[in-house]
Write the structure tokens for this entry.
Amino acid sequence: MHHFHYVDEELYCENVPVGRICEDVGTPVYVYSRETLVRHFRKFEEPFADLNHLICYSMKACSNLAILHVFCGLGGGVDIVSGGELYRALKAGVPPSRIVYSGVGKKAAEMDEALEADILLFNVESEEEVELLAQRAGTLGKKARIAVRVNPDVDPRTHPYISTGLKRNKFGIEVERSLDLYRRAGSMESLEPVGVDCHIGSQLTDLSPFMEAVDRLGELIGALRSEGINIRYLDIGGGLGIPYDQEEPPSPADYGQAVIERVRDMGVTLILEPGRVLVGNAGILVTRVLYQKRGTLKHFVIVDAAMNDLMRPVLYKAYHGIWRVLQDGRGGEPRKVIADVVGPICESGDFLAQDRELDEMRSGDLLALMSAGAYGFSMSSNYNSRPRAAEVLVVGDEYFVVRERETYEDLIRGERIPDKTP
Ligand code: LLP
């Protein structure tokens, strides 16, 4: 459920015509609906009302300060994976007591920043990381709360690039090996093992892998407690899928119910790290048609957004629905075409949709790539020296530019031609 809808023949985000935003701000532009963000957060949180819990939005999905501010205002925290994300989270006003830090490659300086901020929890992923964190915390005179991210070896049955909970993936530590690490961490002055963590993958459309993972973590908590290691937090990561096309993922209510049944008696504070399910369908990428080109084999619709703006189609063969911002005003049923929607980048992988049935369109028409709120802007780049798109947040009948379109000057910020260059 989201707040992008047609009024007569025109696409609106909440009460604002998307076409108006494009006139004012230009294209390509990401447009987010605040009401949808709020609704998704509340729906996701609802089942956990009777349990001690913390929703740590996985901010890699969309890390704009304004989005973080919305979730923070609803009581959420964040799951971070870099010093840059910590910086953003603090700038957005997220209290450190609601920040958990995941990721396999934390650097010493990043650890220091998080230790200084006194974040809630470090999700550690290897023996060497634990040694370094202990040393950094010791040096700074801090005690770091840690959870070991375990790899429960369950198959999330999702795209291989976003599957993380199998032994062949780089993430986490095998459950059997984690016991020794907990013992070692427990013996260290500067570390306090307080949690168990996992994240098995993203865009899951089935409940059973989640449940298998939670069961394994439950057993581990029992084993740890029997050794006197007092586990107070269970972090089950994110991963709940959303409908992009024909998928039918479990509803947040069903997911929540199934988790609660297993976690209720564990005596832990439950941490959840949803990303996509909160923001995916709350954002669209709007682009303008530049040209059309009809070859013998293919019909190309060339638009002003490209793979640098939305990488998901080429990277994961991901599907994003395409809606017209102004539906056909010419009367009658629009003619259909089968087309590839492509951008201006010099790569054949630069497509946003392939062999898609679309209404026939004209140069100047606006198209909305739906469900682009998660891993859209946050994965965008400057490839081909394209300034990154603007981001807009709609609130009822107002809209706010929450990130300005980059300029050419932004493109060369920090670059220098050395004096010695002939
Ligand atoms: N927690 C951790 C430790 C994660 O690595 C991730 C996502 C999440 C939570 C949030 O997962 P979500 O609820 O969003 O599924 N770029 C890919 C998705 C990569 C996901 C990476 N980790 C895509 O566009 O589909």
Summary: The longest helix spans residues 208-226. The domain at 103-272 is CATH 3.20.20.10 (TIM Barrel).
